[in-house]
Write a structure and sequence with these properties.
Order of helices and strands: HHEHEEHHE
Oligomer: single chain
Largest sheet: 4 strands, antiparallel
CATH topology of the largest domain: Alpha-Beta Plaits
CATH architecture of the largest domain: 2-Layer Sandwich
Number of helices: 5
Number of domains: 2
Helix content: 40-55%
């Protein structure tokens, strides 16, 4: 092997090793984030019931099967620092991302979404929705 090709091999190998060692979030910056965000906060009718919470979470996760849903995050309140501006009184949250307002409209009338509402609406006493589009 010549000195030049050995250097090329080492340079290429070093670059690959460095890239593979980077955290996944370092490459996430190149991901295209869908511009329409659908944020929903649920307050359970029976907040002491982990069974109800888990059923709601499972129902929300099933909505990922709807083709227009590009990304889905289902969560519960984080134990972050207490500040006046933070409202963590909800029990379950959901964040969906869509490529367009039209896709979000299709999601609203999709059979899996209407089935979710029919099966789970008795689990919550309050729901708040915030829809936004990237500025």
């Amino acid at each position: 092997m010549t000195d030049i090709s050995r250097r090329k091999l080492m340079a290429t190998g070093s670059g690959l090793a460095i890239a593979s060692a980077l955290p996944k979030s370092a490459s996430a910056a190149t991901d295209v984030v869908p511009p329409v965000h659908h944020m929903v906060y649920f307050w359970l009718a029976n907040p002491e019931s982990t069974e109800d919470r888990d059923k709601l979470i499972a129902g929300l996760k099933s909505l990922a099967e709807i083709p227009e849903v590009q990304r889905l995050h289902v969560g519960v309140p984080a134990s972050t620092l207490k500040r006046d501006v933070i409202d963590n009184s909800f029990h379950v949250s959901e964040l969906m991302m869509f490529n367009s307002v039209e896709d979000q409209d299709v999601y609203q009338s999709h059979e899996l979404h209407t089935k979710f509402v029919e099966e789970c609406e008795g689990l919550w006493e309050k729901v708040v929705v915030h829809d936004s589009i990237m500025a």
